[in-house]
Amino acid sequence: MGRLTVNLCGIELDNPVIPASGTFGFGYEFAQWYDINCLGTFSFKGTTREPRFGNPTPRIAECPAGMINAVGLQNPGVEKVISEELPKLKEVFHKKVMANVSGFSVEDYAYSCEKLDAEEQVGWLEVNISCPNVHGGGMSFGTDPKAAAEVTRAVKRVATKPVIMKLSPNVTDITEIAKACEDAGADGISLINTLQGMRINLKTRKPVIKNVMGGVSGPAVFPIALRMVWQVCRAVKIPVIGMGGIASAEDALEMMMAGATAVEVGAANLADPYASKKIIEDLPAAMDQYRIQSLGELKGDC
Amino acid sequence: MKQQILRVTENIRIAENVYKMVLENPELEEQKPGQFINIRIDGLYLRRPISVCESDPGNVVIIYKVVGKGTEQLSRIRKREYLDVLTGLGNGYDLSKAGDHPLLLGGGVGVPPLIKLARMLRDAGKEVQAVLGFNTKAEVFGEGAFQEMDCKTTVTTVDGSYGVKGFVTDALPEDYSYFYTCGPEPMLRAVYKATCTSGQFSFEERMGCGFGACMGCSCKTITGYKRICREGPVLEKEEILWDD
Q1: pLDDT tier at A134, thresholds 50, 70, 90
Q2: Could you give all domains of chain B from N- to C-terminal order, each with its CATH number?
Q3: Integer Cα distance of A266 and A244 in angstroms
Q4: Entry pTM
Q5: DSSP string spanning A119-175?
Q6: Over chain A, what is the mean pLDDT?
Q7: Domains defined along chain A, listed by start
Q8: Looking at residue A140, what is its pLDDT?
Q9: Do B45 and A61 touch (CB under 8 A)?
């Protein structure tokens, strides 16, 4: 076992760094920048039962220390992801990938998860009950403990692989949702999805984003994400993946000191295509500096 | 696509709110007309995509308008500073369809990508005509570059303070084999309606990454969904779907 090795729901990762869904496509875009096999794994673009174009443009805005997006789950639909994207990914990525799934009904989630669970390349199912950019999609399940539990149960019924529920920070008490997912059988929790926000163009006096609101990500949200990861790690016993504004090896270590088993890196990949690779490369030196022998020793007892 | 550190060798104002920047790195490949580069700017999170105006192996010229915080900051960068840039982004114009006397239609900072295009078309023996549209005389630039290449060049201004009064579509020549255009969306829509041949349009959109990962700049086309940053920014006239 290497210094960076972690175990995520029974599968060993060479390192804890996982590019987050929506910022890494289906991998092969980044394979043109570097060999993506250096990653722990990555979570592919949120996939729904039917193909989706997503929201009208502009979908992107700058904000202090981050960005806002309202892409709206653009994806080719689960059938095409399996028949077209996964074979292309296989050529450039030889590890298990995390399948990110979104839906508009409990049945949608179960349908897509069952299909993706059967794919050999898929190691984990990350169930997004937290997309803020689609009306009636995702986030409505992630803001109600009962609905979150219902989705978890439905997915667990069809899944043979670990089910990780991805939570929204746009709630009053995120630990309540996390506990509901754990009680319903979830194998892990990942958080946070983006925080709802908006910008207005001073010249046009109209929202910058056509959809008005979007999800804020980037370093701006890191302290909020860290706090929520810390809270959830104290509320549940299952593994937690921490994400939200991670941009450096130090950020990743902070997340793991808060109790995260692994970390997802999101917006940073868009600002710098090499961001995730650099974090992995920087981890050993950062661990030396803070006298961390192996990541396994970080138990979140801060 | 490459991430490269480029050295700024020139950054000067050439018209009202319009700047020309020259960037160098011996390892930089020649950028194609219609392609863009994505520049990291200190203190801002997202890179700023700017289209290529001229490029040879080792250097690239951009011409940009100050429209917000990012471009304002870019305008204050001095000679000999270094910038972190993603290069070789986007598809670029397809020159093979030009015919023997193509027309170039540029509006404002949509003019720069047409400069290298004009040069390449001329070097390929084409008889190039250009119509360049601006709001007002103070914003006019690029006319000289086209004239030096012996392109028949017409300038239009909306207020009539220079050249033909009106829009580029008010000064279309009668005869051309094909057209290439770049400019603000209202102009592109007008060009779409007013032109009588096939052609290529270069689009602008707010981008997250600039290299196809985030789906921030997607658009619908006759041939399916495309990313402006990846399958674009240049689209063929026949595949464009305008959303209303």
Answers
A1: confident
A2: 2-89 (2.40.30.10), 95-239 (3.40.50.80)
A3: 7
A4: 0.95
A5: -TTEEEEEEE---TTSTTSSHHHHT-HHHHHHHHHHHHHH-SS-EEEEPPS-SS-HH
A6: 96
A7: 6-55+75-198+219-297 (3.20.20.70)
A8: 80
A9: no
Indicate the pairing of strand B82-89 with strand B36-39. Answer: antiparallel
| Cα–Cα distance for residue pair B98/B181, rounded to 1 Å | 12
- A63 in catalytic set: no
Query: Which residues touch B149 (CB under 8 Å, ≥6 apart)?
Result: B118, B119, B122, B128
Q: Which of B1, B208, B243 faces A32 most closely, judged by CB atoms?
A: B1
Pick B153 or A133 by higher pLDDT.
B153
Give the model's pLDDT for residue A136. Answer: 61
Q: Rounded distance, CA B35 to CA A3, Å? A: 43
A77 at the B interface (CB within 8 A)? no
Probe site for chain B from A62, A88, A202, A269 (most B CB atoms < 10 A): A62
Instruction: List the Cα angle B103/B64/B109 in 5-degree steps.
Output: 30
A57 pLDDT above the threshold of 80: yes
**Model pLDDT for residues B20-48, shown as the tens digit of each residue:** 999 999 999 999 999 999 999 999 999 99
The answer to whether the CB atoms of A74 and B212 lie below 8 A apart is no
- A8-44 pLDDT tens trace: 999 999 999 999 999 999 999 999 999 999 999 999 9
| Shortest Cα distance, chain B CAs vs residue A228, angstroms | 23
Contact B213 A269 (CB under 8 A): yes
- Average pLDDT of chain B to the nearest whole number: 97
Q: Which of A9, A113, A131, A181 is catalytic?
A: A131
* Distance (Å, whole) CA A151 – CA A88: 30
For residues B39, B42, B45 and B49, what is the CA-based torsion angle, rounded to 10 degrees?
A: -20
CA distances (Å), origin A193, targets A47, A210, A259, A263: 15, 20, 17, 13
CA dist B67 and B60 (Å) reads 21
A-chain CB neighbours of B207 within 8 Å are: 60
> Under an 8 A CB cutoff, do B44 and A62 touch?
yes
Helix (H) or strand (E) holding B118: helix B112-123
Residue B150 carries which DSSP code?
Answer: T
In chain A, residues 170-209 whose CB comes closer than 8 Å to chain B: 208
Predicted pLDDT of residue A258: 97
Which residues on A lie below 8 Å from B243 (Cβ)? Answer: 56
Residues 6+ apart with CB under 8 A from B137: B157, B161, B162
Among B1, B206, B213, the residue with its CB nearest the CB of A57 is B206
What gap in Å lies between CA B124 and CA B90, rounded to an integer?
23
State whether ipTM is beyond 0.90.
Answer: yes
